[in-house]
């Protein structure tokens, strides 16, 4: 099973097409992808040679 968009995920959960466990797994995949995208954007906006502290996870 692939990752659903958040809108599709919510719709499938409301219509009981997915179990709670499946929804949680999907949400974790979405969060992981968002984290990667944020990290990439932060690294693009940071000037070279400047070290900034990482946020606590």
What's the gist of this structure?
By secondary structure, the chain is mainly alpha-helical.
Topology of this protein?
Elements: H1 6-14, H2 20-45
Helix pairs in contact: 1-2
User: In terms of structural class, how would the helical and strand content be classed?
Assistant: mainly alpha
Largest sheet: none
Helix content: 55-70%
| Overall pLDDT | 86
Shape: elongated
Number of strands: 0
Question: Oligomer, anyone?
Answer: single chain
Describe the structure.
The chain has 57 residues and is mostly helical. It has a domain of 38 residues. Helix content is 61%, strand content 0%. Helix 1 runs antiparallel to helix 2. The protein is elongated and about 50 Å long.
List keywords for this structure.
61% helix, elongated, single chain, 57 residues, mainly alpha
